[in-house]
Amino acid sequence: MKKLERLTGIIYALKENKKMTAKALADFFEVSERTIYRDMDALAQLKVPIVSYEGYEGGYRIQDNYFLPSLRLDDKEILYLLLCIQAGKAIKVPNMDKTSETLTHKLLNMLDEQKKEQFQKILLRVGLNMERILPDCYCDGLFEGIIESFMTYKDLIMTYYTPLRNEQIKRRVTPYRLMFNSGGWFLYGYCHLRKGDRCFRLDRIKEIALSHMDYTQRVVDAYNHKLKQSHKKYKVRLEMDKHLYEVMKNDAILYNGDMIKLREKVEITVETDYLIEYILLAIENHDEVTILEPRECIDSIKACCHKTLQKYNQ
Q1: What confidence tier does 225 reach under pLDDT thresholds 50, 70, 90?
Q2: Number of compact structural domains in the chain
């Protein structure tokens, strides 16, 4: 990182974090503390109003009223933002089609013609396929309504379609969390109609508006705490063919596992919240993978194989 970029980065970091020590800044920018001290001297010479504190809880802070002028993005930053927009399109962020197109044009127009053409060609060669749910459309104001609820701590009034009963019902919901998961968008919240926590698929929300009823951050924190406490941890131990392990060792389901080398195989122990990925791994690679524990995993594989055999042996 060039010195000018680092000086700008220090200003942004202090504005964001209010106060940081020289060590924290050095760790963040991967430089020595001595370099940070020199950077602070340089910022002082540029009349940037940085206040330094001595002692155990010392550090640096930038005055709250300091105006940070907008800076021109470099080519690498523009390309990164264009790729982020591409990812947003791939996961179909609700109500953001026009915004993404406008932002793409704004970013491309910051480039000269040659670089603009290069970046457009790069974007055509980057493919992202992350969706599994393909909604026809989202209702107007859906994403904005949820974000507004997060900001103002107001409940949501929504009309929700339930396919099983083929009906639309109006509900008041206290939203906890918006997530893209399993290839689609979901809103987790407390349904006041059903008197319990529920998960809502965004493409099934037909209308949405803010309620006059308030909720607090404490409600959201309590949900997150309950979610954390309810997650059961499993210890999965499995044997895997060495060649398959070399192919998969950086996959998320094996990445932090403890590995023991055997003669023709490796033994891996992994802690996880979910067993389904390891069950599928063992079924899809039955010659190369053997689950040793837990018992729940082995029993699920047996039951799956037994039912499948019964179905196709008829």
Answers
A1: very high
A2: 4
